[in-house]
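User: Please fill in residues for this 471-position structure.
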């Protein structure tokens, strides 16, 4: 049952009804039952991999909690991590990710694996006591909104979430559904429409050269952001309808002033996981600049491999690591100089450079192979055709009609307009909540109609699954 299916909306609405109908003490069991049902519907028999991983990690925590003398602690942790990583490494390396996904690969394996590893390591470090309630632990591990693409959960934060949630709150409930609607808007109106243009150019780069490729590369940056954040917003919104708050995963990433700043804003739960469980254990920045740069390269190499087994993903990760290492060295050189806060022009220049570097890296990420990427770069500089920017008709060669291009442009403006307001700490949902009931519902209905009328789906396009669902 995909997030982009009408059946998902019906499923969430029905589960909301059941959840708030049963007594408070039984609501956690409703969430567990709904999550198990969702996982089995989505992954079929492959869900057994997930259940097995959850049980192994839970029993490890119980065993470690009962082992007061600490015998075999390191060996036990290593064994559990190996058991958790093995299926993920097997499915990626064997190249069966696409063709056999429904039979072999449980939904969200890349995400729940990291959540379970973080729990095992935290228990080993005695950060908190092992969970003794299997129901609570299973909900942490397989809570259905976050199982597809995260955010990556940490048990200590989730435990507080569980203790705070469950009771009905009208504001939280409506805010949740607003966020779900915004997620669908980003997916159908922005991401999938941009994807048509990206796919057209990337598949015909020998004919659509020059600025066609540059425009497609920029559109892919927007497509990926709208697609991934759209899915995460649906996940965050779904959780909020039940009174739970998941960790945010994005904070206006294309307003970043550097690559390091970008990774403080993009896929924040993955960045935090890599920092806490790989970068810091390697020594972080405590062992000198050279060692720090090596640690950064290792971390982003791991990030690239996590995204996919192909060389394009590794190159993408190493490129981001190299950019961050260069920024570390530059900061060391400038440390004795007075660091002036950049003005508006300076911030705009840094933001633009960061976007160009990120977009260049996304070209590697999107390419089918390294040779495909090299050919894209060659053809992008093969000719100079400014009419792609100046002549509106050029865009319609990229797969969309005039009528379809207008809502894409307005959708992109809406996306970055919302990000600008959030960057200024202006909450659109809070502003909407203060409007009269009639105005609020006019706004909701307008958003629903926008998604239904201007969204890219149906037999003509066969709406795509979320991009990060492949990783």
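Assistant: Residues filled in for all 471 positions:
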């Amino acid at each position: 049952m995909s997030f982009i299916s009408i059946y998902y909306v019906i499923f969430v609405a029905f589960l909301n009804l059941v959840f708030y109908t049963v007594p408070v003490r039984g609501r956690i069991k409703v969430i567990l039952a709904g999550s198990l049902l969702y996982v089995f519907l989505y992954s079929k028999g492959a869900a057994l991999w997930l259940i097995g991983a959850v049980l192994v990690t839970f029993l490890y925590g119980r065993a470690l909690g009962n082992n007061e003398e600490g015998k075999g602690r390191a060996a036990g942790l290593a064994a559990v991590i190996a058991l958790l990583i093995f299926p993920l490494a097997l499915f990626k390396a064997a190249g069966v990710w696409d063709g056999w996904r429904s039979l072999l690969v449980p939904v969200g394996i890349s995400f729940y694996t990291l959540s379970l590893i973080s729990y095992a390591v935290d228990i080993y470090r005695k950060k908190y006591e092992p969970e003794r309630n299997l129901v609570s632990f299973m909900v942490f591990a397989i809570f259905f909104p976050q199982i597809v693409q995260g955010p990556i959960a940490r048990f200590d934060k989730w435990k507080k979430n569980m203790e705070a949630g469950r009771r009905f709150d009208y504001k939280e409930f409506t805010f949740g559904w607003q966020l779900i609607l915004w997620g669908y808007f980003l997916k159908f109106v922005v991401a999938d429409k941009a994807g048509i243009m990206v796919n057209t150019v990337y598949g015909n780069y020998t004919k659509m050269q020059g600025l066609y490729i540059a425009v497609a590369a920029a559109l892919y940056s927007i497509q990926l952001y709208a697609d991934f954040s759209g899915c995460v917003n649906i996940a965050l919104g779904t959780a909020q309808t039940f009174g739970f708050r998941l960790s945010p995963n994005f904070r206006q990433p294309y307003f970043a002033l550097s690559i390091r700043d970008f990774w403080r804003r993009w896929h924040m739960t993955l960045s935090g996981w890599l920092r806490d469980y790989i970068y810091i254990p390697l020594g972080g920045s405590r062992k000198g600049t050279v060692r720090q740069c090596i640690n950064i390269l290792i971390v982003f190499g791991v990030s690239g491999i996590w995204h996919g087994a192909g060389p394009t993903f590794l190159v993408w990760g190493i490129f981001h690591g190299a950019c961050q290492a260069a920024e570390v060295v530059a900061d060391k050189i400038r440390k004795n100089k007075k660091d002036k806060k950049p003005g508006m022009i300076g911030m705009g220049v840094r933001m633009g450079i960061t976007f160009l570097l990120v977009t260049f890296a996304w070209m590697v990420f999107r390419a089918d192979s390294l040779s495909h990427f090299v050919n894209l770069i060659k053809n992008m500089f093969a000719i100079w055709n400014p009419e792609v920017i100046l002549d509106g008709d050029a865009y319609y060669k990229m797969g969309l009609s005039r009528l379809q291009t207008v809502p894409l442009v307005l959708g992109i403006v809406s996306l970055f307009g919302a990000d600008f307001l959030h960057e200024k700490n202006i909450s659109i949902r809070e502003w909407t909540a203060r409007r009269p009931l009639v105005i609020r519902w006019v706004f909701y209905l307008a958003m629903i109609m926008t998604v239904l009328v201007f969204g890219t789906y149906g037999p003509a396009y066969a709406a795509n699954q979320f991009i990060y669902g492949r990783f």
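For context: The first helix runs from residue 6 to 21.
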